[in-house]
């Protein structure tokens, strides 16, 4: 549980995939997702969200790719009663077997802006050894006027085709607003659609015992130069580390951009001493953040690699 909780916190600390549709594919994956399905005839990959849609008929299938830990709360939500005064009418709740496992399906109707919408929402968790630690929620929405095209049978056939695949790492990285030109032998552990990449150095994904890095972008940086140090300090203090203590802070330049470097010490959940570094590179109100965490006794060997990753982050030109 300790390891799982720390992984979740690190993922949060790191805080619209666009789809392309291969011709004549049986199971199609929105770009970067580990979850795919065979959409009903007439639906195409959406450029607005992760899933498929028939823009003319306003019917769509939205797919969420989530960590397995999210499944329990998703399943509880399926049993929640509609709020008093809600326009939702539950039709059925049922177990739902599909191509890659067993899910839970809720069907209901919803009134929205004078239109009756038919909804199918399925939640499931991967039980595959080759695709572990994965949950999904698939939400299908069909207006009453399109029900003759996207019938209950057609929607269920699409849901039964839901399939999981290993994370398409390079595909996910291609969606990031930056490129990692030098990974310094770190392995990509996770790519988050929020614009963050977690890198790790080790045989597994245990961030409580292995060195790791987080590279992310964000908005909302202070425009005034004098406010940047405190902004950087506050960001670092959100790290899921015990006894975090800053040891130095200085203004530097990274690739000719102003930046703040903070070094710190902390302890792992196991009580092992850690060395931590955070670089934040500023550009207007946006910023690039690079964090490195390593066991203190391995710091001298890892610091040059942390810096190589930092210096290899470049904007992606779309």
Describe, in plain words, how this protein is organized in 3D.
This protein is an alpha+beta fold and 318 residues long. It folds into 2 domains: 18-164, Protein Transport Mog1p, Chain A, CATH 3.40.1000.10; 175-315, Mog1/PsbP, alpha/beta/alpha sandwich (Protein Transport Mog1p, Chain A, 3-Layer(aba) Sandwich). The chain is built from 6 helices and 18 strands. It has helices at 2-14, 71-78, 152-160, 169-173, 228-236, 299-311; strands spanning 35-36, 44-45, 51-54, 59-66, 88-98, 101-112, 115-125, 135-143, 163-164, 178-180, 187-192, 196-200, 212-219, 242-254, 257-267, 273-283, 286-295, 313-315. It has a 7-stranded antiparallel sheet. It has a 7-stranded antiparallel sheet with strand order 11-12-13-17-16-15-14, sandwiched between helices. A hairpin with a 4-residue loop joins strand 3 (51-54) and strand 4 (59-66). The chain is elongated, with a radius of gyration of 22 Å.
The number of distinct β-strands equals 18
Here the CATH topology of the largest domain equals Protein Transport Mog1p, Chain A
Could you tell me the radius of gyration in angstroms? 22 Å
The CATH homologous superfamily of the largest domain is termed Mog1/PsbP, alpha/beta/alpha sandwich
Top-tier CATH class of the largest domain: Alpha Beta
Strand content: 35-45%
Helical content class: 10-25%
The low-confidence parts are 15-25
The major sheet is characterized as: 7 strands, antiparallel
